[in-house]
Design a protein that fits this description.
Strands 3-2-1-4 form a four-stranded mixed β-sheet. By secondary structure, it is an alpha+beta fold. It starts with a helix and ends in a 6-residue tail after the last helix.
Length: 131
């Protein structure tokens, strides 16, 4: 009977030990996340070059992912979205972006609102954009 139990235990995979298929899927997903982060980092770099440098802030926005707010040295700002927080963190690391904990104080004071943003905000105030 003891031999029978030993054989059964040896045949059963150890809990937490991924099957080759699960390991391959995890590796594939990690590679996909790395490519996503690299694409976002490239866009962060382009923004920084265009605006004389940049700083940013990460904000988790639920299932949508993570918002990366970029503030250029010239006051222009924009945002990008990453599928999850780890992809966003890797992207800002790759881009060597200075990241602030919150979007207030020093970082917010650098943001300049241009005509495009004012028009959008005015449209929202007067009912624009409603179907």
């Amino acid at each position: 009977m003891a031999e029978e139990n030993q054989q059964t235990e040896a045949e059963d995979p150890t809990p937490g030990d991924p099957s080759p298929r699960a390991a391959a899927a995890a590796t594939k997903e990690a590679a996909r996340d790395e490519r996503r982060a690299a694409r976002i980092a490239k866009r962060i770099g382009a923004f920084a070059r265009k605006h004389g440098g940049a700083e940013g802030q990460l904000a988790h926005v639920g299932q949508r992912g993570t918002r990366i707010v970029l503030v250029g040295a010239d006051g222009h700002w924009g945002d990008l979205f990453a599928s999850d927080h780890e992809v966003a963190r890797e992207a800002v690391r790759m881009a060597e972006l200075t990241v602030h904990e919150s979007l207030d104080g020093e970082l917010a004071s650098k943001m300049r609102t241009g005509p495009y943003e004012w028009k959008r905000m005015a449209g929202i105030q007067v009912g624009g954009g409603q179907g």
